[in-house]
Amino acid sequence: MISLNDYFKKNNFSTALIGISGGIDSALTASIAADVLGSSNIKSFFLPSIYTSKESRTDAKDLCENLNISLEEISIESSRKLILGELSFLFKNLKKDITEENVQSRIRGLLLMALSNKFNSLLLTTGNKSELLVGYSTLYGDMCGGFSLLKDLYKTEINELCKWRNKNTSNRFKINKKDIIPSNILLKEPTAELKFNQKDSDTLPSYDILDKILYLLIDKNKDLKTIMNKGFKEKIVRKIWKMVKNSEFKRYQSALGPKVSEMSLDRDRRFPITNKFIL
Fold first, then answer.
1. Of 47, 50, 62, 42, whose CA–CA distance to 194 is shortest?
2. Which of 3, 10, 149, 188 has the least C-beta neighbours within 10 A?
3. pLDDT over 90 (residue 267)
4. Got the DSSP string for 231-249?
5. Would you give the DSSP letter of residue 145?
6. Which CATH number is associated with domain 2-200?
């Protein structure tokens, strides 16, 4: 909270801007921003596509109502169709993959950055440490922004912080309600909603397992054998290490954020992008 307040004021921003997805990361980001900066200084945008569920729309609206922040909706569906249509002759006979999914994220990034430029608003990106470490994020898409508030927090820590926020009130800007973050946001399975029926667990281990392995690997600098000896399956540990290694280039291009752990990804961890290290 201190870091956001300092960065916001000392860099002469008057408003902050957030893309609200209906998920837990943007919910915590919006909650902290409203507590620190005041609801009237927050602009939020919901940017749905054909893959966005009604549940996410409801959760986004409920969250913003609880925080008393404005919420505008801009559909990206026509832009998605237009861009994929322009690419169709080049993609002809090629199987659909993550390329088509990431187009959506990059459209959202483009729109949010345009709004940030126009209104001189600080765009708060909503990625977390778990996602950044394994590369579960899109360059020039959901990574767009000027300040990454949750950058040094694992997904499981975000879950706990949301529960804590719901049990406490903030009197600074009279956001004195409890249960600010809708319970459905806390209970539903994480998803990027870039295709139908998509879940984070399709690509990643459960965050409970992922975060424990990442903490040992990154924060405690343990080797793979030591981590496996703690009861984690070799296949999963090696898969996670490969994801971490292959996504180093993304982290070098991520927005800055506060340090809250013993091993932040900005200054504490220095690792070459181009290497052939074997652990």
1. 50
2. 10
3. no
4. T--HHHHHHHHHHHHHTHH
5. S
6. 3.40.50.620
Collapsing DSSP states into helix, strand and coil, what is residue 122? strand
Residue 101 CB coordination number (10 Å): 17
CB atoms within 10 A of CB 261: 17
Q: How many Å separate Cα 116 from the centre of its chain?
A: 18
DSSP H stretches of helix in 120-206:
129-134, 155-167, 183-187
What does the longest C-alpha to C-alpha distance in the chain come to? 58
Distance CA 6, CA 37 (A): 10
Task: Calculate the CA dihedral of residues 25, 143, 155, 18 and round it to 10 degrees.
Answer: -10
pLDDT at 80 > cutoff 80:
yes
Side chain identity at residue 139, one-letter code: L
End-to-end alpha carbon distance in the chain: 37
Q: Phi, psi at residue 44, to the nearest 5°? A: -125, 150
For the chain, domain boundaries: 2-200
pLDDT in tens, 90-132: 999 999 999 999 999 999 999 999 999 999 999 999 999 999 9
Q: How far apart are CA 115 and CA 138, in angstroms?
A: 19
Task: Render pLDDT for 10-40 as a digit per residue (tens, 0 to 9).
Answer: 999 989 999 999 999 999 999 999 999 999 9
Provide the whole-model pTM: 0.93
Q: Which helix (H) or strand (E) holds 72?
A: strand 70-73
Name residue, tokens 């990027």.
Answer: 192
Instruction: Fill in the amino acid letter for 127.
Output: G
Residue whose C-alpha is closest to residue 108's, from 18, 43, 198: 18
